[in-house]
Amino acid sequence: MAKCEHSVNKMSSHSLKTGSSIPQVQGTNDNSTLSKVSTSRVGYYKDPYLKYFTGCHKSPNRAPLIHWGYWIRYSAVNKTLIEFLTNLGNKDNQVISLGAGFDTAFFRLKSECGNVDLLKKCHYYEVDYPSVVARKQHFIDSVPKIKELAIGSNYDLIGCDITKLKDLEASLKGANVDGDTSTLLIAEVVLTYIQPKYVDKLLEWAASFFGKAVICVYEQIKPFDGFGQVMLKHFHTLSSPLLNIEMYSTSQSQCKRYENAGWSEVNSCDMNQLYFSLPEEIRKHVMSLEPFDEYEEWHLKCSHYHMITGFTSPQYWSSIMDPLSSSSNNDDEGISDVLEEWRALYLHTESQHLKRYGHDSVRFEDDKVLVYGGFGIKDHSLAHCRLDNAIMIKSNGEDWESKELIAGNDGPGPLMYHSMTLLPKSNEVILIGGRKSPKHSNEVLYSLSSCGTECNWRIIQYKGDCFKGRWRHSTTLVNDRWLVIIGGCAVNGHVFSDILLLDSIDWTMKKLPVSLPEGRHSHLAVNYKSSVLIFGGLNADLSPVSTCLQLSEDKSHLMAVEFIPQLPAKYSMSGHIISNDVLLMFGGVSISQHQSDIVIVNMQNRTWQGVNLKYPPTISLPLLHGHSSHLMDDGNVVCIGGGGNCFSFGTHLNESPLLIQCSKF
Ligand SMILES: C[S@@+](CC[C@H](N)C(=O)[O-])C[C@H]1O[C@@H](n2cnc3c(N)ncnc32)[C@H](O)[C@@H]1O
């Protein structure tokens, strides 16, 4: 069954040529195996075999976002694999998984096939470094039910460095691989670790050796934005850097690369597109498995991974397999060039307090800003947690002074995604909603007043309709009196479409007779000429919304405001009316491959323009979500905090407040 052709020593000398550390690259397999075990344990998909490939490692429980990430990876590759095997039907065929690691697709298919034996005409080959193959062989031999599936069947493990093409061809031929048989080549997060020149040669060799082949490659793209930089740094730190991504940073450049290597009908889709191509019941099932509230990082992760497919002899495949179809849901947002005027500067602060996301903040008249809650760094231990401290900050040129206020009494405790609104007449801050864990929302309304170095909390006893606990809603102050609370989400993925009105004089809560046409959360709402404008948001289907709605001054009508072209569908942005009819939307997340840092919206002529910020070259790029921002007296915008839990790459907290110089606008 196993054919380990090459020694480990030989591989080590080769590592110098390929530029990556081979043990570390092999370690990526162990890591992903543990994450996949955790994912299947929760029920995202069935894999009864993988746990036997973890050796003595006890597989830890991973975070929901990691489960979602591994589930979408499984869904992408499995979709092509099943389509290939189903459509080939009774024709002889072969699957060759390059850099297969401990993948268990063969065993899953072999045992799950039942009456429809997808593998009956298939020979399944898995190739990896000899030492990985030897470990896999050992695990297979140790578990009788896996050994049974492998023995005497159409399964071969081949130990070979896939950059050594002569060896690879000889090993494959030695195992009866036939260049004329219909072939599916899979490389699931493998080629990215190999020097580009070796990948190019491998792609060229495969395109010429296999007369009738489909190639399916799943890997990372988009290294140049904030999330991409976090991703790059993570793999670099693990000594398994992503070696192709800077040269081939987009799906388009990757497709061109495959075409140049001899592949036809090359197509790609990112994981956002793949997600929305999956049946609704599967998506609903996944949403029901665990409390989940990491939407931004989910969409960002999905836009940074794509799957590419290409064919040799496309005319042969035309009646058998469709090329990947990419839907139009992630077109570009329509970004103009970086404008010199739109400079972003990091403000200097010694404090770690502002490294947080999911908080909210209010600005007082004297440009002081009060921040509460979120997730981030609480004290000198630098450990990350949900935060319950109130921080008063004050800009002093490019320096930013901050101090933690001493709370005179008990407040709401650690909270995320609440809203804070300043009542300018009393200088009281009204805190509404928010959550502790995604299983516990806050139903109590608080007032916070600060004086010097202290702050005091008061529970607001209101009358009228009941406020149902929620987070990621918006609260907008209108005519210095009315707090308009819109949308939000709650436990079990519930998304609100209601609009509530809280009178800050007699503290009466009223549910308005109008409601949003579809529920949403993480939208932007701003006061505009005594009406409320509601932009974007995320709906219950996890689709970013592009509409702009306007709640009339008398709060009796909700109208759609049309833009040409349509506004970008995004959520989790902040925003401000910066002059009479101009609104600035800052940051946010969309499922477009290219999204702008700022959207300038003109309410007068209903147009908009995307703009990218110009950052000083030496700083790490911020993640433009989970932040709060304020329009300051000088006309510039200050953005506080932001960042998120970036998949398995760790939590990223923006360095320090960001000053966006838009005063010239
Ligand atoms: C991230 S793991 C992925 C494993 C598997 N494809 C999966 O998705 O579970 C990357 C795998 O590629 C293998 N690999 C990387 N470079 C290779 C090379 N030059 N020759 C053979 N295998 C290689 C590693 O040993 C590792 O098992």
Q: What this model shows, in words?
A:
This protein is α+β, with helices and mostly antiparallel strands and 665 residues long. It contains 14 helices and 39 strands. It folds into 2 domains: 2-318, Rossmann fold; 343-661, Neuraminidase (6 Propeller), CATH 2.120.10. The strands form 9 sheets. Strands 1-4-3-2-5-6-8-7 form an 8-stranded mixed β-sheet, with helices on both faces. A hairpin with a 2-residue loop joins strand 31 and strand 32 (582-586). Helix 3 packs across helix 13 and helix 11 packs across helix 13 (295-303). The longest helix has 25 residues, at 64-88. Mean pLDDT is 91; it is low at 1-19.
End-to-end span in angstroms? 69 Å
Q: Structural class of the secondary structure composition?
A: alpha+beta
Bound molecules: S-adenosylmethionine
- Provide the domain count: 2
- How are the strands of the largest sheet arranged? 1-4-3-2-5-6-8-7
The fraction of residues assigned to DSSP E strands is: 25-35%
Number of helical runs? 14
Helix content: 10-25%
Major sheet summary line: 8 strands, mixed
CATH class of the largest domain: Mainly Beta
Radius of gyration: 27 Å
Instruction: Provide the CATH architecture of the largest domain.
Output: 6 Propeller
Low-pLDDT segments: 1-19
Assembly type of the shown chains? Answer: single chain
CATH topology of the largest domain: Neuraminidase
- Per CATH, the superfamily of the largest domain is Kelch-type beta propeller
GO molecular function, one term: tRNA methyltransferase activity
Pathway: tRNA modification; wybutosine-tRNA(Phe) biosynthesis
EC number: 2.1.1.290, 2.3.1.231
Region (Disordered): 1-35
